[in-house]
Write a structure and sequence with these properties.
By secondary structure, this protein is an all-alpha fold. The protein is built from 8 helices and no strands.
Length: 203
């Protein structure tokens, strides 16, 4: 079987290519690969990326093999397809680079303060729950249902078969106990409030 385009007339090569003959595709590929690759490489500096885009371009050519009447049509298709591939590649690269820069910016601006806020909040929560563990059983239960599960006084009252007033009183007492227990931690609490307010005055 003939395997190189010089053995074919152009009409025969196009006809064989259109019918899906691999040898005809290889003949066209061998003749036109380098011009397409060089074109792509003008816009895509990385050789591996350029090779991949060029290969994708020829895959699209093969998938549309029954559309062409001459080699000039094939050249035009390859040029347009390669150009579009380069445009899309550069758009994706630019978007990726922009996203990377934005992430780096956000990390620079936010990571340290967020980390500090998180650490202080965690420390305060440890202190709070340590004090909650020391509360009377019913007060502790009401406190956790209210602040950990987010239930309303009426919902807690229904669950525990108590009056709403009793729930409110127990919550108020729990808060008073916490204020007393954490009185010496006021500086830590003030620092957390200051950081979460937007770091006003932060140099």
């Amino acid at each position: 079987m003939k395997s190189h385009f010089t053995y074919y007339s152009e009409p025969e090569l196009i006809q064989r290519f259109a019918t899906g003959e691999p040898a005809a595709f290889r003949a066209i590929y061998k003749q036109l690969y380098l011009p397409v690759f060089r074109f792509v490489q003008q816009w895509v500096n990385n050789i591996e990326d350029a090779e991949e885009l060029t290969a994708d371009t020829f895959v699209k050519l093969w998938n549309n093999r029954d559309r062409f009447e001459t080699l000039d049509y094939i050249r035009a298709f390859l040029h347009v397809t390669a150009r579009n591939a380069c445009i899309n590649f550069l758009k994706q690269l630019r978007a990726k680079t922009s996203r990377q820069k934005e992430l780096e910016k956000q990390l620079t601006i936010n990571t340290e303060p967020d980390f500090v806020v998180h650490e202080i909040r965690q420390e305060l929560m440890k202190l709070v729950y340590a004090e909650v563990e020391q509360m009377p059983k019913k007060m502790k239960e009401i406190f956790l249902l209210s602040y950990a599960e987010g239930l309303k006084p009426s919902e807690i009252a229904l669950r525990l078969n108590l009056s709403v007033q009793t729930i409110q009183n127990q919550k108020a007492n729990a808060i008073r106990l916490l204020k007393i227990a954490l009185a010496d931690k006021s500086l830590l609490l003030a620092l957390l409030i200051w950081l979460e307010s937007g770091y006003s005055g932060l140099a």
